[in-house]
């Protein structure tokens, strides 16, 4: 049966939105080109233009960091440390499961791979509407657990001030350098390298439309974590789900921005209608209610289905960034679903835990990218690099014969001759071309 929608999104892609996107693309391209040409001079000009920020140095000294730390409350410092301990513990378990391997695939032929960390990584920690301290945990600390020796952090000023708590989080996470620099100019400076900012090999972290577009344009020149869109949340609920909890958790993610989809799929029309009623009741007294309300109004959806199998199937089609399972047997989702950024099982578990403190990484795929990739984790900071060694002359000769046949089937004569040479040397085969070239 087709789902019955009690609410559908009212927003749609428009020519105005496309025009805005084109403007962002053009602005970002111009900034990148300018920074590529003029380095630090251009970075400073754009920081002045966009953030009204032009300190003697964008890079914080140790004394600057110490001063920031001193301005953060002891409770906040303790909370940062506890959240980072959770992130570190889970990241360490992930790192331990990634093994170097070597196998003797046939006598005298050894194949293997090593997992080498990226040399230099950049971490972008957003400011703006929300100073995302947790992004420091997710990007910097995860890189350090992976073994990245150099991690550069950039975060924008907020209202012309250094964001002390964000600096504290970046420092405690292990950042080797911290720059108070935001937007496209920060991403471009890290990706390209300037006189004072080291070029990175990989860049991670969320950001606004300009940051996302800069990462998109620079991808290839550097690696990136993923191309993230607006935050998404989807709740799968049965008839036992608590509608007030459903409403609260949908709005917890809708407040991220004006275009954050918040979706409810349930087998109970009663749960659906009560949840919608609670959303209407909560929004007027919610500090971020105007923003969350716009997101819910424009992008919110509520679908009623006839069975849990239909609910899971529909949820897989949405492939949401965050999927909460409010059912009597939430672990069923581990079997029933494959398309998502992260699962949050049971009403004791909320997306906000993942966003802030539980220990899993909150940099997750959006816009259905969960069909082909997962989120940020230690493995993203590692290069799995293969090697091979043929110790046996006989094995080399046999591989030479096989290589010659395989290569000529593809019309790669040069490849074939590399194999021929070993087949002659170790197996006594004769090849006319070797004699003609005077080879041995």
UniProtKB/TrEMBL annotation:
Instruction: Give residues annotated as binding Zn(2+).
Output: 253, 256, 355, 415
Alphabetized SUPFAM superfamilies for the sequence: ALDH-like
Gene3D superfamilies, A to Z: 1.20.5.1300, Nitrogenase molybdenum iron protein domain
Q: What is its EC number?
A: 1.1.1.23
Per the record, the domain of life is Eukaryota
* Binding, substrate: 231, 253, 256, 322, 355, 410, 415
The pathway it acts in is: Amino-acid biosynthesis; L-histidine biosynthesis; L-histidine from 5-phospho-alpha-D-ribose 1-diphosphate: step 9/9
Does the record's keyword annotation contain NAD? Answer: yes
Gene Ontology CC annotations of this record: cytosol
In alphabetical order, the GO MF annotations are:
histidinol dehydrogenase activity; metal ion binding; NAD binding
Cofactor(s) needed, names only, are: Zn(2+)
The free-text cofactor remark is: Binds 1 zinc ion per subunit.
Q: Which residues bind NAD(+)?
A: 124, 185, 208
Q: What does it do?
A: Catalyzes the sequential NAD-dependent oxidations of L-histidinol to L-histidinaldehyde and then to L-histidine.
The record's NCBIfam families line, in alphabetical order, gives: hisD (TIGR00069)
Similarity-based family: Belongs to the histidinol dehydrogenase family.
The entry's protein name is Histidinol dehydrogenase
State the species of origin: Zalerion maritima
């Amino acid at each position: 049966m087709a789902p019955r929608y009690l609410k559908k999104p009212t927003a749609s892609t428009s020519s105005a939105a496309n025009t805005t996107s084109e403007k962002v693309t053009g602005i970002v391209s111009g900034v990148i080109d300018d920074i590529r040409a003029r380095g630090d001079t251009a970075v400073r000009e754009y920081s002045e233009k966009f953030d009204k920020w032009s300190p003697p140095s964008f890079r914080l000294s140790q004394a600057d960091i110490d001063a920031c730390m001193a301005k953060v409350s002891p409770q906040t410092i303790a909370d940062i440390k506890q959240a980072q301990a959770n992130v570190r513990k889970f990241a360490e378990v992930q790192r331990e499961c990634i093994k170097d391997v070597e196998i003797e695939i046939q006598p005298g032929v050894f194949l293997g791979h090593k997992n080498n960390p990226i040399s230099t990584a950049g971490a972008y920690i957003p400011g703006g509407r929300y100073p995302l301290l947790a992004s420091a945990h997710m990007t910097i600390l995860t890189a350090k657990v992976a073994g990245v020796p150099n991690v550069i952090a950039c975060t924008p000023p907020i209202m012309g001030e250094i964001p002390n708590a964000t600096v504290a989080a970046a420092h405690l996470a292990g950042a080797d350098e911290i720059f108070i620099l935001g937007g496209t100019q920060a991403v471009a400076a890290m990706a390209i390298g300037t006189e004072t900012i080291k070029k990175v090999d990989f860049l991670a972290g969320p950001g606004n439309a300009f940051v996302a577009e800069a990462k998109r344009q620079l991808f290839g020149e550097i690696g990136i974590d993923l191309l993230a869109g607006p935050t998404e949340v989807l709740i799968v609920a049965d008839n036992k789900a608590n509608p007030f909890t459903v409403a609260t958790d949908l709005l917890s993610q809708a407040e991220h921005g004006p275009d954050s989809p918040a979706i409810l799929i349930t087998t109970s029309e009663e749960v659906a209608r009560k949840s919608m009623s609670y959303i209407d009741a909560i929004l007027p007294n919610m500090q971020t209610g105007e923003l969350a309300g716009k997101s819910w109004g424009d992008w919110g959806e509520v679908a009623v289905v006839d069975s849990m199998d239909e609910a899971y199937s529909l949820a897989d089609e949405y492939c949401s960034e965050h999927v909460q399972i409010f059912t009597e047997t939430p672990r069923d989702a581990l079997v029933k679903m494959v398309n998502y950024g992260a699962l949050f099982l049971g009403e004791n578990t909320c997306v906000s835990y993942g966003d802030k403190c539980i220990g899993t990484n909150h940099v997750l795929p959006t816009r259905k990218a969960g069909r082909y990739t997962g989120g940020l984790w230690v493995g993203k900071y590692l290069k799995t690099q293969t090697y091979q060694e043929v110790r046996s002359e006989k094995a080399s000769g046999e591989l030479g014969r096989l290589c010659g046949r395989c290569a000529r089937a593809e019309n790669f004569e040069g490849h074939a001759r590399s194999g021929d040479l070993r087949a002659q040397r170790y197996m006594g085969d004769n090849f006319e071309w070797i004699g003609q070239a005077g080879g041995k």
